């Protein structure tokens, strides 16, 4: 095969920017991020990871991007398009109270600011 141009330095920079770590087993990456989401829920009481500068400064941009990706994959699945959202992944996220449509105008977004 062709030699990869992906160096360790490039991979590290991409990870810092919030991109995933690539591995041979994509399900391992997904489970690792799912566990990060469960930790977030323990700390904050919900799965509504904000995508804001304040939150990014806490070092969780990767989790916020992952949550956004799960919502996008779910929407593709609902429309019957090819996606990475499996029934098993959807079930795991449903079990922990994942909000699939967290936009400013809906209940998921409003729930994030209740207290």
What would the principal axes of the Cα set say about the shape?
globular
Biggest sheet architecture: none
Please give the alpha-carbon distance between the first and last residues.
Answer: 55 Å
Describe the oligomeric state of these chains in a short phrase.
single chain
How many H/I helices? 6
Share in helix: 55-70%
H-E string? HHHHHH
- Overall average residue pLDDT: 79
Q: Which spans have pLDDT < 50 for at least 5 consecutive residues?
A: 105-113
Q: State the total count of DSSP E strands.
A: 0
- Structural class by helix and strand composition: mainly alpha
Radius of gyration: 15 Å
Q: Approximately how much beta-strand content do the residues carry? A: under 5%
Give an overview of the whole structure.
The protein is an all-alpha fold and 115 residues long. The longest helix has 19 residues, at 26-44. Mean pLDDT is 79; it is low at 105-113. The protein contains six helices and no strands.
Topology:
Elements: H1 8-16, H2 26-44, H3 53-57, H4 61-78, H5 87-95, H6 107-112
Features:
115 residues; mainly alpha; 6 helices
Give a brief outline of the structure.
By secondary structure, this protein is an all-alpha fold. Helices cover about 55% and strands about 0% of the residues.
């Amino acid at each position: 095969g062709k030699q990869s141009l992906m160096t360790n330095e490039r991979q590290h920079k991409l990870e810092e920017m919030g991109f995933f770590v690539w591995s041979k087993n994509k399900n391992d990456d997904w489970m690792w991020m799912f566990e990060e989401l469960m930790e977030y829920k323990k700390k904050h009481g919900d799965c509504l990871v904000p995508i804001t500068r304040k939150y990014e400064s806490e070092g969780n941009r990767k989790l916020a991007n992952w949550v956004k990706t799960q919502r996008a994959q779910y929407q593709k699945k609902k429309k019957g398009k090819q996606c990475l959202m499996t029934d098993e992944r959807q079930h795991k996220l449903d079990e922990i109270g994942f909000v699939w449509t967290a936009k400013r105008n809906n209940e998921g977004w409003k729930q994030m600011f209740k207290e």
